[in-house]
Amino acid sequence: MKKLLKLNETLPVGLDVVRIISGGIIFSFGLEVFDEGKISDYTLWLTDVGVPFPVVMVYVGKFSELIFGLFLTVGLFTRLSTIPLMITMCVINFIMLDGSIRTETFYLLMIFSCFFFMGAGKLSLDFLIAKKEKENTSASLNKLPL
After folding, report:
1. Which residues span the domain enclosing 119?
2. Is 75 helix (H, G, I), strand (E, B) or coil?
3. pLDDT at 7 exceeding the cut of 90
4. How far apart are CA 96 and CA 67, in angstroms?
5. Taking a C-beta distance cutoff of 8 angstroms, is the pair 22, 72 a contact?
6. Would you say residue 107 has pLDDT above 90?
7. DSSP code at position 96
8. What pLDDT was estimated at residue 129?
9. Is the CB of residue 28 less than 8 Å from the CB of residue 34?
10. Domain for residue 5, yes or no?
């Protein structure tokens, strides 16, 4: 029980859980790219609010949700992946939904902002890659002649 109450031990795991769930949510929204009915509805919506090239913008948004949502879920290129996701959430929230802060897109924008600044955490491919690079660097430094 004491271990559960220690913030420094539970916070990283909690953040990993939030990253995995939010990545999965946005990935599931990205899967709508394969639903022609949804794409048509979103295209009409973007046309109504005056977004230029609405068909292209719908596909750009949906593919960014699909690809970068997957990257966020597995923790790959997390900080870079959050940038297009934040842009997509801003477009949806502030252009399509008139700037309401009581929507899931705004909450996802805040979550993606946190991961932009904090990174992926220990349960991620980013962490494994950084750990491997650190091991390779230290191994090569140990081989240097003194």
Report:
1. 10-142
2. coil
3. no
4. 22
5. yes
6. yes
7. I
8. 94
9. no
10. no
